[in-house]
Amino acid sequence: MTIAWARHILKLLISSLLLILAVVTVMFMLLEIAPGDPLQALVGEVPIPDAFRAQMIEAYGLDRSLPERYLSYLGNILTGNLGYSFANRVPVIDLILGRLGNTLILTVPSLVISSIGGIILGAMAARTRSRFADGSISFLAVVGFSIPSFWLALMLILMFSVILPIFPAQGMTDFGSTGFSWRHLVLPLTSLLVAELAFKARIMRSSMIEVLGQDYIDTARSKGLSSFQILRHHGLLNSMLPMVSVIGYSAGFTLAGAVLVEKVFGWPGMGLLLYDSIHRGENMVVMGILLILTVTIVVVNILTDVVYGLVDPRIRARYQMSREAN
Is the dihedral of CA 193, 287, 179, 267 positive or negative? Predict the structure, then answer.
């Protein structure tokens, strides 16, 4: 690793920390001015006596000034304390960790399948350019990318749960049983997968078409290499470089899309928890989930930049040349 590349990674880490701090500050201020009563979330619709309200306000530190609560919240974040859920009566971090696994069951297969499938379909379309396979894949990719996930989710429920009762429409466990059932995963995973698969297939197709038009590909043909050898040794590997960035950045979109999909299918993950917490005015839970989503997206983007630099020496060389020029 060159010094210039190490300095770039250090700058990336510092700017990411400042970005997380800015996001936390904006979210804290917005939720402070948002309507909602956390103490009412604690007791539900029951009227709160004034004496009990005053006691709870003092107990949870709600009587302190805004700057004091903001600095206290930042300090608690560093120790892993994301606050307290009044409605569920448990620490926010425990509540989120209890739902995190369910969200990963939904989002990780979506990322893996859409990445592998997008690479294969995009390569097939570029390899058979201007033929029936290319036209069919390109048309389906445009259609798949244009369909909103929540609308697709509703149509899948109508088709495969109502008209043809093949897959369950809600939850992740069969009635009367315990444990996860894969039949509950099919429809929400399909809803989350289609747009990502279509997007990655189009990116891979464009990247491979550009690579196959390079001079070194013509040189490989002149050496007598077959089309399969050229595709395997030169086209596929070089076309994968833009996909590294696309796969990394798509992680954030997958997590964001999971919020609506989990709500439509009643999937008990972080997305459904976020929706319910917004509805109940549970600001600390909303803050905790948004903070974890922000940190996850930032970390994935940092890893994407690092991996991109490791697999493409031109990136590291560019930073080295920039440092020498300065």
Answer: negative
Name the band, by pLDDT with cuts 50, 70 and 90, for residue 39: low
For 160-164, 176-180, 258-262, 304-308, which range has the lowest pLDDT when averaged over its residues?
176-180
CA distance 73 to 294: 16
* pTM, full prediction: 0.79
* 286 or 60, higher pLDDT: 286
How far apart CA 296 and CA 28 sit, in angstroms, is: 18
Burial state string for 191-224 with b = 16 or more CB within 10 A and e = fewer than 16? bbbbbbbbbbbbbbbebbbebbeeeebeebeeee
Residue type, 268: P
DSSP per-residue string spanning 200-262: HHHHHHHHHHHHHTSHHHHHHHHTT--HHHHIIIIIHHHHHHHHHHHHHHHHHHHHHHHHHHH
Q: Which amino acid belongs to residue 249?
A: Y
